[in-house]
Prior knowledge:
Blueprint: H1 7-16, E1 25-28, H2 31-39, E2 43-46, H3 54-62, E3 71-75, H4 84-93, E4 101-108, H5 111-114, E5 121-124, E6 130-134, E7 150-153, E8 156-160, H6 161-168, H7 174-179, H8 183-188, E9 194-198, H9 208-219
Parallel strand pairs: 1-2, 4-9
Antiparallel strand pairs: 3-8, 4-7, 4-8, 5-6, 5-7
Helix pairs in contact: 3-6
Amino acid sequence: MIAGMSLIERVYRQCKKAQDIDMVLVVTDSSEIAKHVNGFGAGVIMTPEDCANGSERVAFAAKHLSDDFEIIINVQGDEPLIEPAVIEKISAAFEDNTVSIATPISELIDKKDIDNPNIVKVVTDKNQNILYFSRSTIPHKRGDVFQTSYWRHVGLYGFRRKILEEIRHLPSTELEEIEKLEQLRWLYHGYRIRAVRVENASVEVNTLEDVKKVEEILKNK
């Protein structure tokens, strides 16, 4: 519970605020979560317990949708403050026919965040395609000659539906296992991921301390 409402309901209601999104569903393997979600009026797709990761779970769920749904956006259930505008920007990225996967990035300012291994950093090419994700500080700044910006990954993905099914069957890679970042598997196998710059990364809820942060933000809104 966060300020009187469950985490998952907050995420769902934020997603529902996004414009030009045709359907919002909760995807889970938990009957307890499904019952709770049905209780506040949301739709649920149940998936097998042995789905290895989020994209595999979403790929399974996509099979239950009609062919009209070409773009699938996966918002993780720990994002109670996700901005609807961020979801809209990811949706808009697919107006470019060359985009098959898109994800938001946000500039890092605080030195503690730049060095924090729990915050995933990214570097991009000139076309805003992502070159690499890492828990390490990238780029590594050697000397003080250059000023540089640092960017963090925001945990949300958009996929073309056909790509979801393709990446589901990719073999795991050493880089993915080292960094514990599933998206490195996609890069390793040659898939491009378009970075979409957004103003602010929302607070993910991974600990009780994060709950307090979110409640403080909600109190001041």
